[in-house]
Amino acid sequence: MRSTAIDRRGLFGSLLAGLVLPPVFAKADTHSTRLYLSARRTGEGAFRVSAFTPQGVSHLDVPLPGRGHSFALRPDGAMAVHFARRPGRFAKVLDLRDRRALREISTPAGRHFYGHGVFAAEGGLLYATENDYEAERGVVGVYDASAGYQRLGELSSHGIGPHDMRLLSDGVTLAVANGGIATRPDLPRLKLNLPTMAPSLVYLDRRDGRLLEEVRLAPEFHQLSIRHLAIGRGDQVAIAMQYEGPFSDTVPLVALHRRGSKPLLLDAPKAVLRRMRQYCGSAAFDRSGRVLAISAPRGNRLVFWDAEEGRFLSSVELADGCGIAPTEVPGQFLASSGMGGVVAVDAASGTQQRLGSDFLDASQWDNHLLATDI
Fold first, then answer.
1. pTM of the complete model
2. CB 364 within 8 Å of CB 338
3. C-alpha 361: how far from chain center
4. Which stretches within the chain are classed as H helix?
5. By C-alpha distance, which of 220, 65, 227 is closest to 138?
6. Would you say residue 290 lies in a domain?
């Protein structure tokens, strides 16, 4: 029986390794249009997924069957898959050029999405973080984007509660944030294993699921749930965390990591850490890949670091600000609010400029904001 299981894994890995498509999804170099993508809730309480221009003009607006979370962007930027918030089972395939939803895909029985995913570099495969909740283990679902998003199988995430996931520049290595928290869809917001949780950042080979490296923080930080990732220069991985320990604790919430090294916990003034209220909502690097932005919506804060020097830059206030994405200007970001509205923020000075748009102001923006060029 054991040899049969190994043979099946080997066969699945061979199929993935062989499914290398030509680079038909290469990004165009000229005449591109910048878009920002996010889920939102309308004033009437309906859930939608939207794309808008830097001027705040609506480009795409599609209804959702429930609350959405984040996206996987095809390498050319023209196609995106929007995932349901945990424990949702739906994902919407969006054509950003034709401004429409193409299809809806769903997880198989016994699985639900965790809200994040990534395309392979050639655009033919989609990877999604998922929960095998009966076995209390994380998996990465693998879908064939060239064949109607048929599910080919799954890889182990080598942990519990995989949330965010990114593809490194080699096109092979997936960085997966295992939050370490066991959950079930019938108890959707209940955290079942806080005393024993063991979060990890893992690097795995997307072709066969082989574990390449596992990173854990010191034992005293085992309740720092590793949630969101961003990739900077030279595949530097930024880690945004949420603390599940006593509220009276003041702990670091952000770390940096490069493969083969130890994680570096980033420092910030204690007053800033307290204002973050033990909760990071999203992470993004600026266009240069050097300036790191972290949102802390429970504390109404946006916090910025120079990732190359590990140096705190600034902290600004934005009510329920969570979604954050780079603009085309180095050191500048757009940030969205769950209370409505989007602002442009300069990380060095902390100055903000609100985008004047009735569409943006009337929307309660959800956790994530992603930039793409089509």
1. 0.92
2. yes
3. 24
4. 2-18, 270-275, 358-361
5. 227
6. yes
Tokens 């429930």 found at: 66
The one-letter code for the residue type at 223 is Q
Residue 1 corresponds to which amino acid?
Answer: M
User: Are 343 and 244 within one domain?
Assistant: yes
Residues 115 and 4 in one domain: yes
Q: For 104-137, what is each residue's pLDDT tens digit?
A: 999 999 999 999 999 999 999 999 999 999 999 9
Domain enclosing residue 125, as ranges: 1-18+62-216
- The widest CA-to-CA distance across the chain, in whole angstroms, is 63
Tokens of 153: 């199988």
Number of domains in the chain: 2
Digit-coded pLDDT (tens) for 135-165: 999 999 999 999 999 999 999 999 999 999 9
User: Does one domain contain both 313 and 208?
Assistant: no
Which residues does residue 213 pair with via DSSP β-bridges, in sequence order?
A: 203
Tell me the two tokens of residue 255.
């770390």
CATH of the domain at 111: 2.130.10.10
pLDDT one-digit tens code per residue, 9-51:
443 444 444 344 333 334 444 568 899 999 999 999 999 999 9
Based on the domain organization, do 179 and 68 belong to the same domain? Answer: yes
Q: Tell me: do 258 and 187 sit in the same domain.
A: no
Closest CA relative to residue 14, chosen from 212, 213, 211, 209: 209
The H or E element spanning position 239 is strand 237-243
CA distance 174 to 191: 26
Q: Which amino acid belongs to residue 258?
A: R
